[in-house]
Amino acid sequence: MFFSASITSCARRRPAALAAAVALLAALTACSDSKEADAAAGSQAAPPPEVAVLTVQPGVVPLVTELPGRLEASRVAQVRARAAGILQKRLFREGSDVKAGQALFAIDAAPYQAALQSAQATLARAEANLAQASALATRYKPLVAANAISQQEYAAAVASQKQAQADVQAGRAAVQTARINLGHARVTAPISGRIGRALVTEGALVGQGEATQLATIQQIDPLYVNVTQSAAEAMRLRQQLASGQLARDGQAARVTVLLEDGSTYAHPGRLLFSDLTVDPATGQIALRAEVPNPDGALLPGLYVRVRLEQAQVDGAILLPQQAVTRGSQGDTVLVVAPDGSVAPRPVTIQGAQGQHWIVTGGLQPGEQVMVEGAMKLRMGAQVVKPVPWQPKQASAPMGNTQGATKNEANAAPASSAASTASQ
Fold first, then answer.
1. CB-based contact 171:122 (threshold 8 Å)
2. What is the dihedral of CA 350, 354, 356, 358, to 10 degrees?
3. Per-residue pLDDT tens for 54-105?
4. Strand 103-107 to strand 193-195: parallel, antiparallel, or no bridges (unpaired)?
5. Are residues 411 and 264 in the same domain?
6. Distant-in-sequence, close-in-space partners of 115: CB < 8 Å, separation ≥ 6
7. In a domain, 335, yes or no
């Protein structure tokens, strides 16, 4: 009786539990469907990822070669003692700038002053003899015409007059020589420039047997920069210029000096000449440039690097190196279309310019080249949103590369593409 009642009670509770389970399952199913719908709606509303692009415009890009070099004074003069004697006084401050003709040293001039006075006395005696001989010859001239004296006496008087004239000329030369020697006792600067330390001190005997070097003057404004360039590069450059691949204008062969700390010297220089012969030992050609040095910041003998602009590429584009993919099959870039789609594009590279490649083919003006954001394409993005690329400030490398820029700030204006990148 009790067992029958229990069965009846369970049977009554089963419909209620079953209904609760069905309701719970329906609620879970509705929640899952809601999440999937929300996810689908969210994926449809998500904006395309942003990528950094560079709008390219062809322009004139300079080809710059970076070469090592050393500075050299444009003029060097050795100050030497041309008169023998005791050095009495130094008349300049060591390391200062001197002018041409400025007195630098004083040598004991007493012997030379005495020699000058002796030469002047000899000249005076010769002039007196000339006056006497000339008066005698003048007096004999009418007498020989009247046969009052013999022709031999007149001829002797004329010969004495000419001999006296020669003595006067010799005396004048001796006076001039003595005056020159006296002037050498006061040593002057042969050129204007910066003088170094004195090589002798007061009281030293100089000029005895040889011209003693007293100091050295160097003209450091302007300065010369001596550099060497590979003969193969020079020949290739000339061939490209001759074939029209490269151009050269009146401002070509400009020179920029890079100091040891990597900074750029404020005053640009110019190329003077390139040697006509190749060094057989190194295969290099010697070049010389002239650099202004008005404030004396550069010193002779200083090691520098020189950026030499020798030619220009017309219709070229500067692209950051990170925007170009280089491989055995060729060089490619990613071009972003107006609808946001991305496609690879093969390009032609002429050379390097600092942290940029010089592109001469494969791109059209106004196209957008992806510089940053390639990882977003690998994550499945099909359409992207282009934004202007902002270059990072970085120092230019000091390596010896063909086409290194004057500096990254100046390289950008050379191409409209780089100008767009800096905006």
1. yes
2. -20
3. 898 888 887 777 888 999 999 999 999 999 999 999 999 999 999 999 999 9
4. unpaired
5. yes
6. 178, 181, 182
7. yes
* Spatial CA neighbour of 282 closest among 64, 68, 71, 63: 68
Q: Which helix (H) or strand (E) covers residue 127, if one does?
A: helix 110-145
Q: Does residue 81 lie within any of the structural domains? A: no
129: left (phi over 0), alpha (psi -120 to 50) or beta: alpha
**Residue pLDDT, tens place only, 344-394:** 889 988 777 778 888 888 888 889 898 888 787 777 677 888 888 887 754
Which residue, of 184, 213, 248, is where some domain finishes? 184
Range 135-158 average pLDDT: 90
Structure tokens given for 303: 């090691």
Give the count of domains, the chain: 2
Domain hosting 353: range is 55-71+222-422
Tell me whether residue 287 is exposed, middle or buried, using C-beta atoms within 10 angstroms of its C-beta: 0 to 12, 13 to 18, 19 or more. Answer: buried
| Per-residue model confidence as pLDDT tens digits over 43-53 | 454 678 888 88
